[in-house]
Every structure is written in C-alpha cells, then in structure tokens.
Amino acid sequence: MIVCLCHSVSDKKLRKLILEDGVSDMKGIRRCTALGTQCGKCVRQAKEILNETVAFQYQQVS
C-alpha cells in the first residue's frame, strides 16, 4: 500500500527501513524517503506504521 503519494513510499518500504535499517523515528524516515515533506497527509499513517512495527520488534526480542 502506498503511504506517501507525493514520494511513492509504501508501507513495505517503511517496515524495511525500521526492521532492517534500524530507523526508529520520523526524522530518520524523512531523511531516507522525504515522506511528509510535501503535502503531509501521510504523516499520521506513517507514525502508526512506525509505532506498530517498533512494538512488534520489541515483542519479538522479549
């Protein structure tokens, strides 16, 4: 699913950045993808994906 239409960033790309590349905040996501730097409509959904993925990652470690 495309999260950011302006920069063609998908949910899969976000999860890969978080799980494989160690990105752990919106600042890191913006640095890697430019997500949220144009219209900003994607930021809320990206934050939800970030929070869910980080929570899942910590559950796997515990």
From TrEMBL:
**Pfam families, per this entry?**
Fer2_BFD
This protein's cofactor list reads:
[2Fe-2S] cluster
Query: Where in this chain does the record put each BFD-like [2Fe-2S]-binding domain?
Result: 2-52
- What molecular function does GO assign, one term? 2 iron, 2 sulfur cluster binding
Q: Which InterPro entries match?
A: BFD-associated_ferredoxin, BFD-like_2Fe2S-bd_dom, BFD-like_2Fe2S-bd_dom_sf
This protein's UniProt keywords: 2Fe-2S, Electron transport, Iron, Iron-sulfur, Metal-binding, Transport
Spell out the family assignment given in the record's similarity comment: Belongs to the Bfd family.
Q: What is this protein called?
A: Bacterioferritin-associated ferredoxin
Q: What does the organism's lineage look like at the top?
A: Bacteria, Pseudomonadati, Pseudomonadota, Gammaproteobacteria, Vibrionales
